[in-house]
């Protein structure tokens, strides 16, 4: 039975880098059982099933204060207040996502509230504030966190009677992994003190997942602020223990604690999740929670290092900073990540626009390293690299959209024809229409692409000639093509014969132009799927023609579902050279065909014949 929100796929199905949740191997089932046992054996009675105290029962808040002071001890020594957490400034919650709208209600539920968020920021926070109907505005990020000067400048433009919220992720920021500098936190505290209409909500769920062994865990933002500030530091057990706990906490000022306690919704229902609080309490008392967090932190550190190194090695053109904690890598892809998704096969990413309040940052994407292992990362990044290569080859040849929508007729509706149809629609979003070819409308097309067979191609050319058509034709079919009809049609229309639509074969052709055939014994070995009827393949024949190789020196294999492989072997008495091209996915031919279609849609298309 599937209990989780997401059915995370295995890497052979898809590497889903969108998954921002703990790996199941890191979830503490044994600890939950121990905590339950201790609670039932030592603490549980009938009274524990009653409505709980509104801020959380006092004993748990006292244990939470000890836990937080222990985790933040080193950093809090800097403030000369090593016991900043007290039961009186801790309020138990269901976690961050439910606390954000709760705080808006507690603070007055005013529709004129202006919310500032970092650009980028946690996408769910953007959605929540927009669903509440609030005016969401952005402040850019710098390498050391929020641009505090920009925020202060914007704040001064707002009337003092207008409520303002700043939602910020100070440590191991989601998605950038940036940690705000000490000086900026001090500056924010000063702004909060001097602007009574401002409420700062700090989302600090990754606070305890920093990777450095030499630096202390950064303290919560509330530590920087006086009791007169409207500041809330939110924490959660979802990332450091288990999401299903649905348990979190806030540390805040006495003023906000009073507002929370007096809020009618909480006054009616009592404290949040007291039974789970009891279970967590047992684990805090025995230090088992601390040991678990340290283990999770170390596992994340190793996964982060692994994914970061793989990205740097395999995608050197992409800008990415190595995170110092948290869950995520933030990649500057330098291309449109939303369109890149159309090229992704068995790999998934969160596109940058999701983390922008205005749908910008499309040239970024977020990868999570929390779920998969090193081998999975290699598979996923290889797939992402393939998608980027296909995107870059295609984007350089976008069609110039004319006033009437061009219609491309796809002749042949097998696997490749259907993929061309699908990829064309995905790429152009109906600005160019891809339809299955109909002979009755043969002259209505801006371009025709043929991916049938030698017989199918022959029939198409007969129809085109009979209708005195001038529609440009791209022939991707192979075999014994009707060359006489091709030449005849090329006298009245543009014809392009392409033996292989992949991006790699043209490169192979460039390589072999430099080969002197007379100096080598040359053989060609080609392998395709069992459904391919012609042998040798059209690509093998083309390569053989360029190398002056007799077809008898081509060896053809038809095996399983092999997409396509060509090996050119050059032998001499002293050395051997092999040039090998392997197509891993049929989709590469579909996107490759779009390159030639683009050329036709953009060109003047005078009658003539091109064979490549």
The rounded distance between the terminal residues' Cα atoms is 54 Å
CATH topology of the largest domain: Aspartate Aminotransferase, domain 2
> Into how many domains do the coordinates divide?
3
- How many distinct beta strands? 24
Structural class: alpha/beta
What would CATH call the homologous superfamily of the largest domain?
A: Type I PLP-dependent aspartate aminotransferase-like (Major domain)
Strand content: 15-25%
Give the helix tally.
Answer: 19
Main β-sheet, in a few words? 8 strands, mixed
The outline comes out as elongated
CATH level 1 name of the largest domain: Alpha Beta
Radius of gyration: 32 Å
Helix content: 25-40%
Give me the side-by-side strand order of the main sheet.
2-9-8-7-6-3-4-5
* Poorly predicted tracts of residues: 398-403
Mean pLDDT: 89
CATH architecture classification of the largest domain: 3-Layer(aba) Sandwich
